[in-house]
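Hi there,

I know you've been waiting on this one. I reran it after we fixed the sequence typo, so this is the corrected version. Both the input and the resulting structure follow.
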Amino acid sequence: MGSAKRLNYVRKASYSRNLEKIEAEKELDGFYVIRTDLNKEVASTAEVVSNYKALSHVERVFSADLDIRPIRHHVENRVRAHVFLTMLSYYVSWHMNERCCLKMIIQNQQKNFVAVQLHLLDVQKTH
């Protein structure tokens, strides 16, 4: 029904484009609205947007990475245990990945720092 706003009815089975409405809608292209009931003291605008953008990662995790389905358990306690263990294993792998990334960043910064120190020593020796 949204496209009906952009069309003018001319006669039976004939339509034309409403260029004024199409141009007005172009002004909003690329914008989206995020509404939250959180106070700015709880989460800044940047934090709200960042968390919203992270939802796609969470959706990917649930659809692909967790691989919860098919569950071949029929007793509620076993299903709950299966989901718990799957979430726990994902958390452990996420946590290990975060640590590895942080360690790699620190090692890279240390290498860069050493390279700068060596360069400064070379410059001092030449002058």
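Quick highlight: The beta strands are 7-11, 14-17.

Best,
R. S.
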